[in-house]
Amino acid sequence: MIGDRVKTLRKEKKMSLSELAEQAGVAKSYISSLERNLQQNPSIQFLEKIAPVLGVTVNSLLDPDDNQKNIDTDWVKLAKSAQESGITKEQFKEFIEFNKWRKNQK
Fold first, then answer.
1. Which pTM value belongs to this model?
2. Residues 58 and 79 reside in one and the same domain
3. C or N terminus of the chain, fewer CB within 10 Å?
4. How many other β-carbons are positioned within 10 Å of the β-carbon of residue 66?
């Protein structure tokens, strides 16, 4: 169940219900009811808010065996920020290749 997964992840991060609710911008009571399996069908919007705070993807909340659960959410945020600033995939790839080249020059 999603509630069990949320509770486990929250405890692994040593977060209280209040901390998770505040950081995700959701109601503490809703998280509590989800973790107690009173609420069993959270919206995707809700999951999109709590997943990054828990350091996982929405898919991994829905499927604990999802192979993307180890994605570093800071990298995801960085990539989104680059995209929002107008950097294209090609420019991003060129930057990575340049850094590899520069590293090999040292």
1. 0.61
2. no
3. C
4. 15
